[in-house]
Each structure stands twice: as structure tokens, then as C-alpha cells.
Automatic annotation (TrEMBL):
GO terms for cellular component: nucleus; P-body; perinuclear region of cytoplasm. The keyword Cytoplasm applies. It comes from the Eukaryota. It comes from Torulaspora globosa. Belongs to the HIT family. It holds the Pfam family DcpS. This is HIT domain-containing protein. Substrate binds at residues 158, 168, 191, 193, 256-267. InterPro entries: DcpS/DCS2, Histidine_triad_CS, HIT-like_sf, Scavenger_mRNA_decap_enz_N. The active site is at residue 265.
Amino acid sequence: MVANIGALISKFEYERVLDSNPQTKVVSLLGTIDNKAAIVTAEKTHFSVDETIKKPGPNGRRTPIFFQCENEYSCVNSIEELKEIASNDIYYWGLAVLKQDMEHNPTAKLNLIWPATPVHIRKYEQQNLHLVRESPELYLQVVEPYIQEFFDQGRLKWVNNILYGGAEADRVVYKDFSEDKKDDGFIILPDMKWDGVNLDALYLVAIVYRADIRSMRDLRPNDREWLIKLNNKIRTIVPACYNYAVHADELRIFVHYQPSYYHFHIHIVNIRHAGLGDGVAAGKAFLLEDIIESLGYLGPNGFMNRTLTYVIGDNHELWNRGLKDAVALQLEKDGIPKLPKVVNKFNQVVD
Ligand code: G7M
């Protein structure tokens, strides 16, 4: 039987803070549950407004956005206590306690990983970030062997549970699958990161049934038509599933490189949502449209021909398996000193 999150969290024994981000209002804690490592991530939820209503305009487009502030949890209605900090001229600021409610106004979204592996712990821990220029040679030398080990360790269990085991079945937004056309099949469902409530933060993931694409590195020109169809289907299906509260051109559709999981999947995010952490940032997110475009001229080996530039944390296994040395070498080759030269008042370079 699968344990539930409440029962597990009640046994959580705190050890230390892995990361705390005041901008995204996310904290990740490391601890143990039944003597096995556990990571609890808590994210303060966004404010509640009744609903985002898009009224049809003269050209049939449903803009602009109207918010309702009628229920007891929306806008300022939920203020239970308010204490002024200060005021100056026309400016006032203070602290508030808001009415909380599980359905309308939950305080936070909690994620639990248990048992957490050392890879999870390193991933969630605050770390320095680096920009890597991954040439096809560097990929073959460092990254591909790592991906191979990834498969050996069975880290795709959650993906296979969704595709074949009925996991999260009640949350699936769309499933396109038939035995005879397995290679065209895919599932769209809410990403673990989304609370499923606030459409402004809509975050879905599409997982394909094809198992031969481990990352965008494996994409070739003959996958182009497949990706175009997939992109069009996503842009047709998702708005319809959410009653057109979000439109086809309001979806940011992208792929991560490096991904955390080497089975091809696509991120589908409301364009208004800046994403948590660096998930939507340049150096991590590659727009599906740009990938499709590139496949038109990359040559028969597709992305295997391209140097990919991306951001990686120094806790990532790949950093210490060769990317760190490669970056040092690249900087040297480019004539860029890693540390600035310190010059004293006599204009002499000092160590
Ligand atoms: O960085 P990468 O492209 O590999 O991102 C994987 C995405 O899958 C992330 O946005 C995760 O939040 C999401 N994800 C990871 N797990 C383990 C799950 C899961 O079990 N269920 C769902 N729905 N999404 C997940």
C-alpha cells in the first residue's frame, strides 16, 4: 500500500535547510522519515482571486482579463488581521494574516521525496551554477555514459508508472495511445510542481510513449514532423481542456537540457508564469518551436551535430565527471582568465 503524504510528514525529523529562496518563496528541508532521507519542499501559494475570466472581444479573442473579488477568500476579503508597519505621505505598508482554506486558499504546496537518494539531495541543495558549452564530442565522452548509467539505475520508474501503471491516472488531462501507433502516443498531465488550482501558474508535462529519445540530443530531422504534430496537438488540446482560460499562443512549450529524467518529455507552462527557480530560464529551457526550426537545417545527425550551451549546478554529477574540467579548458582556450588578475598600486599583477 502507498503511504499518504500526511502520515509521512508527521514522522519527518528535521536535519537541515537545503535551500531557501525568498523570491520564489520556496524552502527545501532535509530530514528523515523512518531513518531514511526525506526532502520536504514547501512553496507559499499564490493569492486567490475568484476566477480569471476572459471576455470575448470584438474580434472573438477573449481579452482582456477580468478578475472577480467576490468570495471571502479573494483579494482583500480574506484579511483577518492587519497591522501597519509605517506610512509616509500617500504610501502605507503593513503585515496581514489571511484567512486560509484548503479548497480556496491553501497556505502552501508541499512536495515530499521519500526515500530521497543522494542525487535528489544534491539537486535540491543550494549550489553554484556554471555555463557549459557542450560540444558533440563532450557529449559522447561525458554525458552519454552518464545517461547509460541513469537507465541502469531505473530512475524512470515514475515515468513508466504514468505511461503503463496507471499512476496519477485521475489527473491525466489527455492521453493519446493505441498499440498500433504507440510511437505517436503521449500523455499530458499536471506537473508535480503545479498546485492544479491557479491557472496563471498552469504547469503541465507531456510524456511521450517513444522510448528512443532520451533528450533533445537524440532528435533527428525525421523527428521534425512528429514534433510539429505534437506541438499542434498540445496547443489545440490544452486550451480546450481549460475552457480557453489560456490560449494556444499563451503556452510556453519547451524542453529542458540537461533534463532531470532521460525520457523525452515536454514542459507546457502558462506564459504568464515565470516558473520556479531557473526552469524557464535561458540556458535550461529550449523552446519546442526553436527545436523544430533547428531540425530543418542541422543535417542528418540533428542535435548530435550541435554544441549546446546550458547552465549546470556544481552538485550535478556531470559537473564532476568531466564538465568542470572541460569548462576550465574552454576558458583557457578562449583566453578568458577564470579569476580576475589583481593589480597592485605599482601596476604589478599579484597572485
Ligand atoms: O528537468 P526535467 O525536464 O527532467 O523536468 C522533469 C519534470 O517532471 C519536472 O518539471 C518535475 O516537476 C516533473 N516531475 C517529476 N516527477 C518525479 C514527477 C511525478 O512523479 N509526477 C509528475 N506529474 N511530474 C513529475
